[in-house]
């Protein structure tokens, strides 16, 4: 690959480019990675069980339900809007599945499809009132938060709780592990190799088009870092029960939606609308259609996440979708690096953000500290993330990048 090998003389240039990028507000995932590392070091120093294979494996499963919902929230935030209904939608989807499957005898697969389709339909309703009627997204989804929560209570009926089959398909989503060590290592190898091939191909295309591209050395460093993380994760997971099915599904969803956002016309339209609605409209983009679609993605992912949350406790109840779920999903997206101002973020933000939040919850639980402390720590981390986002945007404006 032409230009693929950096020389010693290139290194000062690369370091200077990195320094200029940071000064101009292009922080990427650096703040959340530093936060996550600090949290893990602090809790590991206070309790050695925090980094045990059992706790890390449980952490890998615990992040999935909330993380999937946060992925949908990322799509809405990218166009500069908010969805306050995701918690209620997740609870409603779990309730509909449980009632159809347990009380009405519908097979699990059709019941799952109905629950997910309901989520998509709810998103279409929210998107219609926002994009076509002109009702602010905050108001539309706040109404949804109340309305869909009420519908969930109605669906569950007087019993209030429906227990799922412990050996059913949905229950297996969070209880099944691939015990063969080759599975975890195979997924790590496949992910690392796939990243290298995609990065190498993209670099060649950019060079052929005459635009800046990563050097071969830069790709190798990134691939090596990814490989180190994934194989270390595989090693730790194999020391407990192996690779959790839930975590594998979550990573697969992230990879697929990352491709949609970064490598399709639809994804580029989302970023364009987040960068400026009027400019996108004048450029001939289907603003209304895209706005409706992101709310559909958000509610669909909320329904899927709700099924994983129900799987974790093998039940759907009046508490489903409640508590601090809504705040955690929005916080996960923002802490992970998705901008509240729209136009900047990635689906991987959901993974990083929910890892931070769930790591705090796990550490607090291990130390026997009151849950109130967990909320205060999470709130502080969220505030720092928003401040960094605002300062980053200000720096970008100063450098003409916004």
From TrEMBL:
<feature type="transmembrane region" description="Helical">
    <location>
        <begin position="243"/>
        <end position="261"/>
    </location>
</feature>
<feature type="transmembrane region" description="Helical">
    <location>
        <begin position="219"/>
        <end position="237"/>
    </location>
</feature>
<keyword id="KW-0472">Membrane</keyword>
<keyword id="KW-0762">Sugar transport</keyword>
<comment type="function">
    <text>Part of the binding-protein-dependent transport system for D-xylose. Probably responsible for the translocation of the substrate across the membrane.</text>
</comment>
<protein>
    <recommendedName>
        <fullName>Xylose transport system permease protein XylH</fullName>
    </recommendedName>
</protein>
<feature type="transmembrane region" description="Helical">
    <location>
        <begin position="27"/>
        <end position="46"/>
    </location>
</feature>
<feature type="transmembrane region" description="Helical">
    <location>
        <begin position="325"/>
        <end position="343"/>
    </location>
</feature>
<keyword id="KW-1133">Transmembrane helix</keyword>
<feature type="transmembrane region" description="Helical">
    <location>
        <begin position="375"/>
        <end position="392"/>
    </location>
</feature>
<keyword id="KW-0812">Transmembrane</keyword>
<feature type="transmembrane region" description="Helical">
    <location>
        <begin position="109"/>
        <end position="130"/>
    </location>
</feature>
<feature type="transmembrane region" description="Helical">
    <location>
        <begin position="292"/>
        <end position="313"/>
    </location>
</feature>
<feature type="transmembrane region" description="Helical">
    <location>
        <begin position="58"/>
        <end position="79"/>
    </location>
</feature>
<keyword id="KW-0813">Transport</keyword>
<feature type="transmembrane region" description="Helical">
    <location>
        <begin position="177"/>
        <end position="198"/>
    </location>
</feature>
<feature type="transmembrane region" description="Helical">
    <location>
        <begin position="350"/>
        <end position="369"/>
    </location>
</feature>
<keyword id="KW-0997">Cell inner membrane</keyword>
<dbReference type="InterPro" id="IPR001851">
    <property type="entry name" value="ABC_transp_permease"/>
</dbReference>
<feature type="transmembrane region" description="Helical">
    <location>
        <begin position="86"/>
        <end position="103"/>
    </location>
</feature>
<feature type="transmembrane region" description="Helical">
    <location>
        <begin position="137"/>
        <end position="157"/>
    </location>
</feature>
<keyword id="KW-1003">Cell membrane</keyword>
<dbReference type="Pfam" id="PF02653">
    <property type="entry name" value="BPD_transp_2"/>
</dbReference>
């Amino acid at each position: 690959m032409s230009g693929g090998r950096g020389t010693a003389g290139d290194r000062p240039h690369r370091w200077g480019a990195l320094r200029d990028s940071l000064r101009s507000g292009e922080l990427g995932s650096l703040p959340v990675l530093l936060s996550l590392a600090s949290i893990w070091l602090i809790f590991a120093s206070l309790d050695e069980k925090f980094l045990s294979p059992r706790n890390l494996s449980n952490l890998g499963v615990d992040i999935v339900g909330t993380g999937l919902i946060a992925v949908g929230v990322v799509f809405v935030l990218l166009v500069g809007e908010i969805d306050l209904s995701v918690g209620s939608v997740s609870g409603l989807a779990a309730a509909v599945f449980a009632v159809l499957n347990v009380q009405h005898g519908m097979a699990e697969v059709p019941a799952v499809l109905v629950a997910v389709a309901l989520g998509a339909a709810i998103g279409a309703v929210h998107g219609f009132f926002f994009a076509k009627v002109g009702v602010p997204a905050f108001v539309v989804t706040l109404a949804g938060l109340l309305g869909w929560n009420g519908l969930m209570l109605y669906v569950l009926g007087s019993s209030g709780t429906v227990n799922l089959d412990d050996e059913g398909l949905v229950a297996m989503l969070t209880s099944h592990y691939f015990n063969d060590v080759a599975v975890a290592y195979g997924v790590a190898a496949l992910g690392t190799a796939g990243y290298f091939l995609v990065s190498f191909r993209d670099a060649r295309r950019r060079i052929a088009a005459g635009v800046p591209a990563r050097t071969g050395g830069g790709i190798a460093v990134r691939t090596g870092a990814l490989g180190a993380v994934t194989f270390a994760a595989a090693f730790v997971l194999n020391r407990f029960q192996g690779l959790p099915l839930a975590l594998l599904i979550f990573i697969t969803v992230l990879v697929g939606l990352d491709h949609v956002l970064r490598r399709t016309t639809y994804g580029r339209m989302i970023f364009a609308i987040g960068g400026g609605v009027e400019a996108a409209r004048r450029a001939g983009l289907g603003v209304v259609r895209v706005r409706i679609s992101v709310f559909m993605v958000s509610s669909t992912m909320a329904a899927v996440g709700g099924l994983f949350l129900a799987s974790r406790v093998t039940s759907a109840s009046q508490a489903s979708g409640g508590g601090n779920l809504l705040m955690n999903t929005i916080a996960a997206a923002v802490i992970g690096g998705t901008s509240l101002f729209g136009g900047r973020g990635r689906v991987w933000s959901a993974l990083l953000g929910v890892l931070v939040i769930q790591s705090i919850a796990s550490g607090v639980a291990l130390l026997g500290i009151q849950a109130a402390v967990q909320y205060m720590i999470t709130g502080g981390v969220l505030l720092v993330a928003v401040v960094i986002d605002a300062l980053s945007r200000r720096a970008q404006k100063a450098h003409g990048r916004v």
